[in-house]
Amino acid sequence: MDPGNNTGISEFQLLGFSEKPELQPLIFGLFLSMYLITVFGNLLIILAVHSDSHLHTPMYFFLTNLSFVDICFTSTTIPKMLWNIQTQSKVITYAGCITQMYFFMLFTGLDMFLLTVMAYDRFVAICHPLHYTVIMNPWLCGLLVLVCWILSVFHSLLHTSMVLRLSFCTEVEIPHFFCELNQMIQLACSDTFLNNMVMYFAAILLAAGPFIGILYSYSKIVSSICGISSAQGKYKAFSTCTSHLSVVSLFYCTSLGVYLSSAATKSSHSNTVASVMYTVVTPMLNPFIYSLRNKDIKEALMRFSRMTTLKGIIVLALKKCP
To answer: 0.85 cut: is pTM over it?
Structure first.
C-alpha cells in the first residue's frame, strides 16, 4: 500500500533541538561524540566478555545482550539526526518514520525486559547460590532472552499497526529529533482515542510490570543479604548487584523524568532535551558503570587490550619480514 494514500502525506519534518544555524555544528559534534562513545564502549564490553572464558556466565551473557541492544537503541535515532544536520535537511519519509518508531519501541522494550531478567539472575545467585548453576542453565538463559525479544516485537508491532491506521493531514512537523509514538499520535488528524488507550495500557503493563519484578527481586536480595552474619559476606554479595542497580536506577529515573517533565510542561523543546537522557546518555554511561564498578570486567578489558596490542605487534613484525 502506498503510504501517501493512507495519510495524505509522504514525509515528515523532524525539527530537532534548534533551528539556529550557528548551533548546528555544536549539536552535531556533541551527538556524534556521544554516539561513538556509546557504540565503542558497548562493543568493547561485548568483545571483552566474548574473549574471556571466565566471563561466560549467565550474568555476562545478559550483559552482552544489553550492550548489543544499547548499540541498536541509539542507532535508531542518532545517525538520522546527524545526517539531517549534515545535509541541512529535516525530512524523514513516512516509511522511514514508521520504521524508526518501530525499532525505537522494540529496543526500549528489550532494555526493560533484559534489566528485569538480570535482576532475576542476581536474585537466584544471592538467594539460591547452591542451585544457581542448575537453575540458570544455558537453556533457560537463552529462553529468557528469546522471550524478551518476542514480547518486545509484539509490543512494537501492536503500536506500529495502530499508528498505520491513522491519517496525517497538513501538520507534518514533529517537534522532536526522532519519530516518537506520542508525538505521532498527537499529529494525527483522525480519531486517536483507541491509540491513546492502547498506549497507556501498554505503558502500565510493560513499564510497571518489569519494574515491579525488579523491586520484588531486590526485596528478596536485601532480605537474604541481611541474613548474612559477616560484614565481608554482606559486602561481597551486595557488590555483585551494584552495577545492575546503578543501570536500573539510571534508566528508570531518566525515563520517569522525561514523562514527568512532559506532563508538567507543554514545551516540546524541554521534552526533546529531556528525552536525550534515556535515549543517548543512559546507553552511553552503561559501559562505564559496568567497567568501573566491576572487577571482572576491568580485568577482562585489560587482558583484551593486551591481547589486541600483542596481535598488532605480531602483524607489524610479519609485515617487516622479507
So the answer is: yes
